[in-house]
Design brief:
The protein has two domains: 234 residues, 3-Layer(aba) Sandwich (Rossmann fold); 85 residues, Tyrosyl-Transfer RNA Synthetase (Orthogonal Bundle). It is mostly helical and 369 residues long. It has a four-stranded parallel β-sheet with strand order 3-2-1-4. Helix content is 53%, strand content 5%. The two termini are 23 Å apart. Bound molecules: tryptophanyl-5'AMP. The site of tryptophanyl-5'AMP has 25 residues, from β1, α1 and α6.
Amino acid sequence: MIRPVILTGVRANNDIHIGNYFGAILPIVDMAKKHADEYDINLFIPDLHSFTTPIDHSQLYGSIMNNARVYAAAGLPLDDESIYLYRQSYVSAHSELTVILNNFVGFGEMERMTQFKDKSRKASRALTQGDAAEGTDGPARDRVSVGLFDYPVLMAADILLYNSTYVPVGDDQTQHLEITRDIAERMNRKFGNLFVVPKPVSEQHQFFGNEQGLRIKDLINPAKKMSKSDESGKGVIFLNDEPQAAYKKVMSATTDSLARINYDKENQPGIANLLEILALVRQDAGLDITLADIVDEFSGRERYGDFKKIVASEVADFLSRFQSRLAKIDDVAILAKLASSEAAMNIIANETLRRVQIAVGLRKDEDEA
Ligand code: TYM
């Protein structure tokens, strides 16, 4: 029997932060445990997406493995056979399908992607500053990579290769999900039923509940989400931060001048963010608690400093617990899981790729696979 597929990924990067962890990794691990009876769960490491903006390549392989360990430390059951954990670049069909899909996607469509606009602006600013230091020439924008431009098409290939129905991602990825649906529908109209079209975002939200909308904010600038690409790192709590360093970051978090705790995302975004973070770290500690409970507990209190100390010390405790779980992860088990999942994924992905190759005229139906 063919089981529906739930698929998601977090980019390989050593500096996974609590936004990725609580916003993506933990919900998918919980969801994997909950739904593995009925769904296939594809959890992958988009390693080819990791250098669409410049990185230190000597760290990449280590980051990829770290990413796999983080899933395990978050409680992913490695022995469950309906759960697959794999690396994108170990299934070459991802790259090949991207090259084919590129020809059915408009330049303008890609240029309108908000994430491309944001990241290319940032990358071009960073390059301009680098140019000044290194004395290189050429307009900085010329060196915003084509990889960054093409990011959503590779993402569409990631999703469509496995006939995925649900793709739990944060709302910053909504546009990418929508373009994936557009590409699938466009190809289906042109070539017949090639792809399973993932559910619309609203249905995904319904299916996954609240966690879908969860967005941890930057501690210094709570108007924007906590992000790996933040330049200073002061507003971001990384999973590998020293617990004491994280304590200090929380103590320096931006709040407001209202001097009264309320869960009001609009007018008190810093406080609202800290309340959310506190709920998450308490849940991680095994407490059966909701955000509403935390809001009840702290609403109306006036001393932000005392509140921050509580959040800071519970965040530090969370990091200590997490880091000791991570240190115990067995690399042999991780490598075995990756190898078996990648073997299985290559078979499925190559079947889809072959369907597409036949549709676009690169192969004939009766050719050997
Ligand atoms: P990445 O690594 O940028 O983000 C991974 C996931 O983390 C979510 N996220 C957050 N959630 C809550 N609070 C935050 N501050 C926060 N920051 C990030 C993101 O929404 C995302 O769900 N493009 C994907 C990776 C990818 C992918 C795919 C995902 C590549 N191919 C195919 C699903 C299916 C991404 O944003 O990675």
